[in-house]
Structure formats: structure tokens, C-alpha cells
User: Fold this.
Amino acid sequence: MIDQPFHFAPYLKSVIWGGEKIAPYKGIVTDQQQIGESWELSAVPGHVSVVDRGPFEGQTLTELIDRFGAELVGAPNFEKYGHDFPLLVKLIDARADLSVQVHPDDRLAALRHGCKGKTEMWHLIDTDPGARIYAGLKESITPDEYEKRVADNTIMDVIAAYESAPGDTFFLPAGRIHAIGAGNLLAEIQQTSDITYRIYDYDRRDKDGNPRELHTEQARDAIDYTVYPTYKSTPAGDCLAECPYFDVRRLPLTSAPAPVHYGRDSFTIIMCLHGEGEIQIPGSEAVKIRQGETLLFPATMKSLTATGHGELITVQS
Assistant:
């Protein structure tokens, strides 16, 4: 029987476009620089999250699923995904513009890479003045025109851009062109997949002076060329994003207990975006959570409530 949630050591990833916001946001003291990503919860091979406190310290997320199965992830998830954890949760800090990307859907990813595709969502935590999010096509183009625009550096002319603000949400189904602009700190929830097709990178060079690899041909067949009226989400109440892969909700914290679970037989991931709070588990002591922390609650823990001052987001699959 699992009697407490799991806290994992974050994997801090330094990248060419990374900034200096993640460590202070999470309250971490480190000499590491240009931290662009903090992988809060991951089962991606080579970067599987490891418990860093409590009686299960040192055990990996994969080992926990092997040991507890449906008790941890919920019967529907265990039946669908087996011993694979379905989601990858990150914090992202963009000091510079990220490359323009697209991800394949499940069918194409299985055909080409033998893995799942990548549908994801972003929730903005902090933004610098003038920061932008790029998502979707603002005018219709053909696959041939797409390739021409990549070649002549005009692809950005047909991608929709939004000035971003804290609290904004963008849902990015597989196939949607997207990029995080400079000055954004955000939470990302996605399918467990590290397959990315880089479309455009502003002619940047790597540390050796070489152009970064593009995946123009692979991306051509992965792109959804449909033009939609808007790509910025309008949340329905506290629901930020809901799709076959994840259900993400916003939970403001007050002194009045607020329910966390939403009826699914699923694990619950809780991220504290701002402030601090307490999660009450029936029959157990309350668990504290503060800004920048992420906790994984097993599916057996029902009727959770939260109090405090700040804001959480909760994730189920």
C-alpha cells in the first residue's frame, strides 16, 4: 500500500536557448547555467525520474510502476500503457527563441520510430514584456510551399504569433507547428515522447559553428496544414486542457479546502505554480507543496483536498 505521494529529483537540462529563471523559481542553488528545461516527471529512457526523498528514495518511476502497477497509475492507464508512464512534465525557460517544431501523431511516430506521438500543452507562468508564443498556421499553405518557405527563410511569415501573458494556455495537438519565444517561463505537459522535427532555427549555429539539423522532409508529412481561427485556448472554467492523453486543471488555493480529484481512476500530478499549500490525504497527514515543486499521487489516493495561498495545476491521464 502506498501511503504518500512521490517527489522526484528534477533533471535540469542546459541548452543553447536556456535562461536563468528555473533554479530560483524552484528554490535550487546550483552553478549550472542556461537551464532551459527542468524535467519534473519523466519515464523517457535515459532520463527516468528518481525519487529523492522518503521511504522510496532512489527508486525510479519505472521501478515504482513495476512494483505497484494499477495501484499507482490506475487500472485504465495500466491496461492501456502497461509499465510505461504516459506523460512527461517539464518547466521550460526560454532566454532566446526556441526552434520552430512539429511533432508526429501516434500513427506516424509508430511507423517511423516505434513509439508514441507527441501532443502537448503549455501553461504560462511568467513572461517578459514583448514575449511571444508561436502556434499554428495563420494562412493556408501547401506542403510544397512549406518546403519553399523553409528554404528561403519566410516560414515565420505564415505562423500565428501571440503576445504571451502569465496564465495563458496553448493546446498543441500533434501536427501543429509551434515555438516558444524568448522571455517565457512555462509548464509543459505532454505525451511521453522525445520525438521532435525541427523546421526552422533562425540560421543559428551550434557551439562548433555548424548549422543545427533541420528535419524538413520528415516534418512535411507530420504537419497539420489546417488553418484555425485561433490557437490560444479559452479555458472552460478551471479546465485548461482535456484530450485523450491528459486532463489539466487550474486550482487556486485559499483557506477553504478545494477538491483535487475529478473522478478518474488515475494518478494525479500536482504542480505548484505560485505560493504554497497543503494537500490533505484522507486518513493521513497533510503534505506540503511550494512554488516550483511537483508531486505524483497514486491512483489509490482519492478525495484529495488542497488549501493554501497560491495556485496549483493538477494533471490526470
